[in-house]
Amino acid sequence: MSAPNPDRAHSRRVSSRLPVFPWDTLAEAADTARAHPEGIVDLSVGTPVDPVAPVIQQALTAAAGEPGYPATAGAPALRASIIGSLRRRYGITGLPEHAVLPVIGTKELIAWLPTLLGLDAGDLVVIPELAYPTYDVGARLAGAQVTAADSLTQIGPRRPSLIYLNSPSNPTGRVLGVEHLRKVVGWARERGVIVASDECYLGLAWDAQPLSVLHPAVCDDDHTGLLAIHSLSKTSSLAGYRAGFVAGDPWLVAELLAVRKHAGMIVPTPVQAAMIAALDDDGHEAIQRERYARRRRKLLPALRHAGFAIDNSEAGLYLWATRGEPCRDTVSWLADRGILVAPGEFYGPKGAQHVRVALTATDDAIDAAVKRLA
Ligand SMILES: Cc1ncc(COP(=O)(O)O)c(C=O)c1O
């Protein structure tokens, strides 16, 4: 390959602002795990493994012949299904039709949210200390500043433009209590700060009951400045469809819609149809939740018996586990047993002694992991 042309440095202007893709650093541990005589059990990523429910697949294919452009705002039936599911599943009330908007998976929305809201170098985005990496990526894409803080006092005198919440958390499974959520909402409201609450794992609760930022007990029925971000990837195993939505402050949602219309950020018609089927049917969601609950009931005691302490992990798709040693040592220890997990340092320096163990593996793979840990 010829040497890179210095005149083309401009072509990396954006990617050079972004962090190194951390998963590349897991290659050696992955090779070790793959060399296990019975094969790898990959618990390093949160990708669903169970087939999409037939009711959703049928809705997708039934819409496959639709030739026209879909609405960026979402079909009226989709908006109604979003509002209905948020009310039934999470007790969220008072959302008008124009307060919800479908997105092409929530990673897309999170990566572009600061840009879509017009944030730039003068703006500060606050993210959790242990966090899904795309919050930071989105701020960097907009050229905004980022700080990691789990408490309001850590933020200091500066007024952020946007603050992220993520309860239940990826990676820790921590659930923020109603008082914590109320405090953040009140603090943000006094200062005109937007709160984006990533509620990707809200439907996967085990030992604690998480609440949406839009729940009346949190926001007193006032959605001003609040955005709740919901994914269908985990609760309905639709990661491959790219399906999510944002709901909350109608003024903010209208602004997002106005920009997204111009930018062509449109959810395809068959995916909109599949989303309606998924949001109208609570049965497949309950089945999926029980699958993860079953896998968690096996894996959690197996890790404890193998000498791990499990912190938080009261909800969501991960066990936040530690052996009180550097996380890369734990990754290697598990890789020697054919099990691949994610080092906690991927999510922030506070994760230096933890690993994230995903529940997203088949029952057979979970059984194999349990056997190897014994
Ligand atoms: C906390 C969190 N938010 C958002 C996402 C993105 O989900 P999707 O883009 O599939 O909707 C993930 C995916 O793992 C996640 O863990």
From TrEMBL:
Stretches assigned to coiled coil: none
Family annotation (PROSITE patterns): AA_TRANSFER_CLASS_1
UniProtKB keywords: Aminotransferase, Transferase
Keyword Oxidoreductase: no
Signal peptide: none
EC number: 2.6.1.-
GO molecular function, one term: transaminase activity
Cofactor annotation: pyridoxal 5'-phosphate
One Pfam family this sequence matches: Aminotran_1_2
Aminotransferase class I/classII large domain mapped to chain residues: 40-373
SUPFAM superfamilies: PLP-dependent transferases (SSF53383)
Cited PANTHER family: AMINO ACID AMINOTRANSFERASE (PTHR42832), L-GLUTAMINE--4-(METHYLSULFANYL)-2-OXOBUTANOATE AMINOTRANSFERASE (PTHR42832:SF3)
Family: Belongs to the class-I pyridoxal-phosphate-dependent aminotransferase family.
Name this protein carries in UniProt: Aminotransferase
Organism listed in the record: Mycolicibacterium brumae
